[in-house]
Input
Amino acid sequence: MDKKKESIWKRMGIGQLAIPLTALALLFLFNLIRDPGFFSVVVNINNSGNPVLGGNLISVINSASELAIISMGMTLVTAACGGQDISVGAVGAISASVFIKLLIGMGNVTAGTLTVATLACIATAVAFMMFNGTLVSVFRIQPMIATLILYSCGRSIAYWITGSATPQVDSPIITAIGMTIPGIPVPTPVFMVILVGVILAVIFKRTNTALYTQSVGINQGAARLNGISPTAVKMLAFGLLGVCVAVASVIATCRMSQVSHKTLLVDIEMDAILAVAIGGNSLGGGKFRMSGSILGAYIITMLTVTLLAMGINSVNIKAYKAVVIIIIVGAGSPVIKNRMILWRNRRSAAAVKGGAAS
Output
C-alpha cells in the first residue's frame, strides 16, 4: 500500500477499525459456511397480531442494544480517565429499580408517568456515576478501584429500593419499548441505539467534547496548560455514561416488564470493556473511536448467538468467548501491530530493491 492510499485509509479511520471489521467478517463467513440460513430474516406474528422480524441476525442486532449503548459511555470514560467503570451493571440495577418503583407508585402507565419515571431513572444513574467521577477526578483514585465500591454494594441498594421483591409492570407501552411498536416490525431497542448514537454524534460535532476528552486522556498536564479542566472533562464523561446506563436499564426492564436486582445487566461491565478493546480503542485512554466500540458490542453478541446456535451449553459459552476474544484483542495489541508494520516495511523495501535491480 503506497503512502497516498495509506493516508486515505487513515482519514477514513479504517486503520483503527481493521481488527473489529475483520473479526465481524470472519464471524459472518463462519456462519454462512456452517449454516447458510443463519442470517435469514423472517416475519412472525406476535400474540397481539402484529408483524415482527425474527431470525438470528435480528436477534444479534436486538440483543446487543444494551451492550452497545453502555459501550458508548464506557468509551468516553476510558478515553478520559485511562480506566474503566466496573459498576455499570450495578448502577443499572439501581436506576431500573427507581424506574419501576415510580411506575408502580404512580398507578397506570401513561406517557406522562413514563416520562417522569425515565427522567428519575436518568437522574439516579447520573448521580451515582458522578459519585464515581468524583472519586476518580477529585480524589484521583484509579477508576477500577473507585468503581469497585458500587460494583460491590450497588445491587444491594437496588434490593433495598424494591423491598426485596421482583416488581412487575404490565402495560402495552412497556411492551412496546422493550419489544416492538405495533405496526413497526423492527425491535424498538434498535431505534434506541440509533438515537443515543445520533445524540452523541451531534454532541461531538457541535462541541469540543471529543477533543477535550482525548486531550485529557493523552496528557492531563498539557490539557490543563491549554485551559482544559481535567476534572470537568472526567465528570462529563461519567455523566454521559450515567445517561447511557439509564437508557440501557430502561430497555432491559421493559424487555422483561420487571426488575431483578440479581440478573439485570449482570456482567455487562465486562462485555462493555471488551467491546471498547475489540473496537481498537486504547484502554489506557486518549484517542477513541465510538464506532469501534459499537462494532465490538455486536461482535460479542454475534459470537454468543453463534455459540448458542451451535448447541454449546450456556455454562461453557464464557470459556469459548474468552478464547476468541483473546485472539481478537491480541491481534490488535501494539506488539502485533508494530510487528506487522515492520514486516510490511521490510516487504516494501525488498520490492523497491528488487525493482531497482531489474
Notes: Residues 53-294 form one domain. The first helix runs from residue 3 to 12.
